[in-house]
Amino acid sequence: METGDEPLQSVSVETTNIGASVSLLDTATGYYLYLVNVNFTVGSGSVTLGLTDNLLILYNKVLTSYFCNVMSYPLSPKLPTKAFSIVPDDIYNYHTGIFGFQGLNQRPIFVSIYPANQFICSHRFLTYQDYSISCKVSFSTDPTIPDSFPINFRYPSGFFLNYNPQPFILKESVNVTASFSLILPSLASSIHQNYYFMSDVTVNGSSQNILDLTALDYTSTRIPYTVRKVLGNPYSNYRTLYIFQRGFSTGTSSFYLFKVLNGTINNVVTVSDTVFAAPIPPGSIQLPISYTKSNDVVELEFTGYTLYQSYYNCSMGFLDPSWINLAITSGNFYQSTRKLSFFALYQSSGTSISQPVLINIQGLQSDIEAPVIQSFTIDDLGGMLMVITVEATDDISGVYKISMGSLSMYSWDVMNGTIVNGKWSKVFDYSKLTDYYRVPTLSIWDVAGNMKELEIANYGVIFTDTPVYPNVIPRQFGLGQTFNNLSISTLKFEKNDIDLSQLSDSNSVYINFTNVNRWMTIRLIIDPISEPYLFETKDHYYDVFYGTWDETRNMFKIDFTLPLRMFTGPVNFIVYYPDVVFYSQDLLFYGINETLRVVSDNADQMPPIITKLMKFQDTDSNVIGWDMLISDTVNGFKEGFISVISSIDSTGYNFTITPKVNQNIFEDTYSIRIQLPNYYQSQVFSLNLVRLVDQHGVTSQVEYGQSNPYTDKTRGISPLYRVVNSVNQTITVSAKELLDTQTPSLLQVSFSRETVDVGRGDRSLSVYFNISAPIANVSRLHIPTCSLMAINFREQSTKAVLVDYQYSSASYECNFELDYGFGYPHTKIILSLYGYSDTYGNLGGVSTHDIIMADLPYYVSVEFTRTVPIILSVPDISDQGGQLSIFGNYFYNVSFENVYVNNNTIHSQPIQLGENNLIICRINPIANDFDLQVRQVEGNSNVYRVKVIKTIPPADCPGTPKCGGLSNGQCTPQGCVCVQPWNGLDCQSRTIYTNTPVINTTTPSSGNQFNTTLPNGETVELRTLISILSLDEMSMSGQLVQSHDFPHWIFTNITGNGEIPTYLYRSNVTSRGIITTVSVTVQYFPLLTNITFANIQLQMQPSTVKYRVDITPFGFEKSVNYLRLVMSATLFSSSTSNSTCSAMESGDQNEDNEYVKLQIDTHSLYGRFIKRAIIDNRIQSISNTIMKSNKTSNTESQSIIGINIPFYRVKSSIDPDFSVLIDTSPANTKPNSKCSSLSSSEDQSNVHDNKLTSSQIAGIIIGAIGFTSVLVISTIYYFYKKRQAASALRKINMKINKLQK
């Protein structure tokens, strides 16, 4: 319908068994908006909507069917899936239980819970019948812990249901002692300074029933807005900070600490003191404000204001405000004249400066009507891409902005037509939005600032039935987590227990869901503070990690990092599958018993703090500054940034401080100094911004006296909180006067170009200007700022570069790369300059109006070409090539002839999507970053540089056919991936199933002895040996520094019930006073098992013996040295045949692996060594040294393997494994074979150089993972005659016994 048309002749709603009504709500937006009210009652039926116009039925459709049932009553509770535990679920003392009720097949929309007075609780619904409830002890006038823990559920019908789960607080005595300190800001301290209550707690005994001590300012009824455990261990000694926001009234406040003692919450300490009010910042903007108008440019002048801040929110009409600097043009920071120039093209609802101050400025033309949306569609492009298309009209100024939630299009995104009557279309990636849960509105503004909002129905669009976010599952607030049959089905951490005492650590979690969409981007939120259900509103506040589908694992994978010295205990987390939230506390409900646990000997989440502040002032030399004692007792101080401003100058003196070689990082004094000029005004210097960072990234920060936990990860801790009342925070200097009150002046200004096409790729612009200060000279400390202003307060600014300095004058240059569409739909952008000064402190700046009055160039014309293609963004691509997405505008009828890579056309036909603003094409493998361009008849796009991500090159797989053919294995970039039961380098070997190996209780040497029958009927007995020989320190040049044998091992059988056999060996070596423990864990895998190490997935074949070796800190002679773990692999044969031969081969299997192969006759020992190590919890590349032993003969083949471990500080780990395989390729066909001297010339004819020619593997696979080796020892089939067996076996046993001594 068009505006002005008559309303529909009939709008009807037909229902069964219920009542309904229809009313017309709105006719002013170009269409008619009707409200349909339906009153549902118990029973079933349907709702039909009918539309009739001039007796013509336009629409008649059943909107919905319904079934309403009476909720069963009374409800009976189910057995809890998870009862409240005595030990809290997190360090914030929340206890979570999962409960439910019988008979609920659907749930009322609203349910409230009311726990006992002594607790606070939150709840969430998992299904119609099941609830997750998280509770903690709260303040109460009744401090007695009840025998029961009643929770009342209130339903909309008005009745209460009482439920009594087991309380989680034990009535036991806990011996707790506490010291405390209260730090209150004085009246003289910085504005808005927070105040802090700090407690140090000692827990005597081993009880885990510790109630977190809690503080409350009862006088002002103010609770802490941040409570942070910052140091220690929650079960022994720890420190807690309670941070309060400073109020605006002065008065006495009392603070209390509590603990649980004998079942009662008791007051531990009380302290009262005066909290001084925060001073209200003077100089808030007030009317009247003078303004001057020059054609379409308006200048506002603010004279005589004492303003602490420079930036204010400015908006035109109802447009979203922009953060704009009110530039000083004369005076000083505290008492100044400030000016703001901007465009006033239309007379609408006014201009707002620092709301709610509203300034009515006469525009060139009146425009009071909002634009009209004619159509609105959302199209799913797959994955998490969608295109929003809107057709809209406006009567005068034209459409400026269209928004749906946080997704916006602007005038410069118009695809067809004009901004007065046009079509907008844009592709959006919605994978990382944080507001899915909000039902968005569709809003539209015109250039004049008039706005119209349309409510989008609950996850449905007014104009279509398409969901707002096509692949996002609507949360529907509390209807349970089983939306669209989506539930979490798998969750597995690579490491469940992590020691963060000395190092941060990386980890991975693998997750799958029922009914999953593998193109989604999911999230992991680690350690959500306080109420985790509020995480959506603080997404930037938490540690959020993103994950995508892992094709190898066939599930989602999220990599994440845990910081050093987190608090000991379980780590809560949230898994977020848009828009469904899964909490770690609730995983048991989904049948997942997975926990992430950390331990720290001494947790440290306390950032560096200034504990003593002393000011320095030397009036003779004009030097001032501060000496500050910085303390960080555990992690140590790493770096800091300090900005000093004065009462007349906000430019600031900036300092970066870092510990020097001779300084103590845990506590030391640091100094900053400021050299004042020869002449200066009276002023007060103060610390404006202080940011301190410890060795592991824990940060404290304060700016303008404020520390905000919701805007940075300092979470409210100010580095100045211990010196908040120090008189040394400011330094006052008295003037050394110079009779100069003259503001520096602008002499000249010019632009590098008169016109910029902001719709093309080249949008560069330079501004050149010259400043004069003839009396006090131009200050080099003050770097001017160039500001370019477009319509509706769209601003770009940049710092100038000093080009020439002549004391009394200086030349500068500002270089811009203008944003796409900057200045459109107006025809020009205007310039202002500010931030320069003379050495006496007279600040200067010029508004656009000032430049006009000086008869200097003040604007640049803008054009906006809409026919020539432009590339705006392109994601990185693998060097293997593949799909490439090109985002931009004005791609018309694109074919492979239009897309150019390094000036060559692509060879595949591209797909064009998203209304001419997305091209998807395929790119051939490419090694390096490349130039991309779209060339069309209308013109060529900008050249866009695409980044190429290096991947593992494809392997040249062994075997004829490769990998034994499709029935045996598949060739991948990582080498052959074998199909069971095939194995080996070329998938032409089979696994041999052996008995559990003989475990040596004195040394971690493993071997196996077993009988098998060959195809010719001959019985064979086999025995093998793998040993750990020594730990050697090597110099950078590869020379041996020192060698450590292992004379004694402590053996422990640590096999659990029903688990695989597991044995632990420990031995110590000492170097330079440091005792190093080498722990070897030996496991036997009877079945095929997958393991992951160093981000590589490996298969443990049946009958595999796996070693895990962990090494604690080692006393290196030099940090450039490295360790070499020496192992031996030996293969024996009892054969006395003259034709017996042995061989050894080694080399690279692929980019990640090396191999060694020992062979006797048709049996081989195969070793694989992964060239990765986990060093100090991080994956590093390593090398291996493979040496042939001089014991090698035709019946014995031995190799010495040195695994080279780079310098480390805390820990390194290795993980070798051994498997038995069959191989039928004889040794005398292999390179460099060694045969009996009695062998025939024919037998010797196949002795070649040391290079692998046949990859058919047989043997035991010994894998070293990380800096670990993976060795594959082939099954050794000894062909020998029965009459020789006894004698040969005696020889083997003698050699093995000799090696084991």
Automatic annotation (TrEMBL):
Domain ComC supersandwich: 1024-1221
DUF7949 domain boundaries: 957-990
Domain of life of the organism encoding this protein: Eukaryota
Residue ranges crossing the lipid bilayer per the database entry: 1257-1280
Compositionally biased tracts (Low complexity): 1233-1244
Keyword Transferase: no
Disordered: annotated span: 1225-1247
This protein's UniProt keywords: Membrane, Transmembrane, Transmembrane helix
Sections of the chain in a coiled coil: none
Sequence ranges assigned to domain DUF7743 in this UniProt record: 366-458
Domain DUF7034 residue range list: 744-865
Keyword Membrane in annotation: yes
Domain DUF7035 span(s) in chain numbering: 603-734
Entry protein name: EGF-like domain-containing protein
Gene source species: Tieghemostelium lacteum
Lineage: Eukaryota, Amoebozoa, Evosea, Eumycetozoa, Dictyostelia
